Hints:
Elements: H1 2-11, H2 39-46, H3 51-62, H4 76-84, E1 90-93, E2 106-109, H5 111-126, H6 128-141, E3 146-148, H7 149-154, H8 156-159, H9 165-168, E4 177-181, E5 190-194, H10 205-213, H11 236-246, H12 266-281, E6 287-289, H13 290-299, H14 308-312, E7 317-320, E8 327-330, E9 334-335, E10 338-339
Antiparallel strand pairs: 1-2, 3-5, 4-5, 6-8, 7-8, 9-10
Amino acid sequence: xxxxxxxxxxxxxxxxxxxxxxxxxxxxxxxxxxxxxxxxxxxxxxxxxxxxxxxxxxxxxxxxxxxxxxxxxxxxxxxxxxxxxxxxxxxxxxxxxxxxxxxxxxxxxxxxxxxxxxxxxxxxxxxxxxxxxxxxxxxxxxxxxxxxxxxxxxxxxxxxxxxxxxxxxxxxxxxxxxxxxxxxxxxxxxxxxxxxxxxxxxxxxxxxxxxxxxxxxxxxxxxxxxxxxxxxxxxxxxxxxxxxxxxxxxxxxxxxxxxxxxxxxxxxxxxxxxxxxxxxxxxxxxxxxxxxxxxxxxxxxxxxxxxxxxxxxxxxxxxxxxxxxxxxxxxxxxxxxxxxxxxxxxx
Length: 347
């Protein structure tokens, strides 16, 4: 009740939910949607294979306070082999004979790596307003308007957050966020909570695109952009279902429409796809590991089984199995293996 009063005070009161809409009771046609490899999107994933561990090692070297970095699970020999792949980033110096770390060389950043790190910090500073907006949108997608810091930490890379975002970013936006106790998940758990709803930001990427052409009204049908790899062909009945599904009204993911729509309807699936579409749009790389995206889906209140929507709509989402991981990519965000709109951090 306290949370309800809290949100009612900040958002100007709750409106009664609209009556349930029961459009198209059958959620999907009885047909199997095949998976076809997309070499361009696979390459978009594969070419970043070593980027995250390299970035983690860079942060560990240049931020000594970062203990327990992602490289800690690697054996010393594997770590040295990795470092030797990038002589332009890391300097390897033999340890002194009297050192306790005998046989373990000392690793130092090269001047080039230091320069890139400093450039990266400038990009974080120049993008902090846009980054705060994206993080606020993520909170507005959640039913309780709050998200565990442990979840945000897990998605920090995809959200383009600096490693010390809780100290360097959040305090600059007291009208956006506040850190509160996690409530029942242990004494040490913390959440990031929405302070004030922002109506201007509660507009999805689909709606912003439609507004550019003019004439769009809330609830109008909006068709998701679809792209298919060469050699892909939908069965005739699936294609007919998709065409009808695209003509259904578009429900904004920033509206809690999941509770007022028949969960067994095509309309519910369109809202689910809209939420997943918006989540991927909020990420700087327009992609995420499958488990992380599924975790986000649970956090924003999607019903169990929502992951089927990723399979039903191969023209919107693509699942890559490269680099021993399952990565979900938003097709419209890419042209072959390149981002259509590259975020400054992705440089």
